[in-house]
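Duplicate of earlier report; Ferredoxin input re-posted below.
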Amino acid sequence: MTYVVTDNCIRCKYMDCVDVCPVDCFHELEAMLVIDPEACIDCGVCEPECPVEAIRRDGEDDLERWVGFAREQASLAPVITRKGEPPADADEWAGRPGKFEVVFGRPL
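Output:
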């Protein structure tokens, strides 16, 4: 099992989760964060830290596509170990539906 970052993170990227991760499994994409499913130890400390509830445990609902996306993207993006500044328009994007298609230009 692993935790995954879902589309609620897209263009919000508050990064509160990064500071609590004991194994540095977060990777930073331009528009969002992903959790490397190979590095995640399933401790769950990141989930309650996310103010937009973007982090969920794999095995809930239909998250397999997010695990695949994270696996693919983690190998391409740098590890992030410290909380940075969220985008200036993060609050405007919080809770907006359909962000993946808008930002990545394709369905997940």
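The helical segments are 16-20, 64-74, 90-93, 99-104.

Merging into the original ticket.
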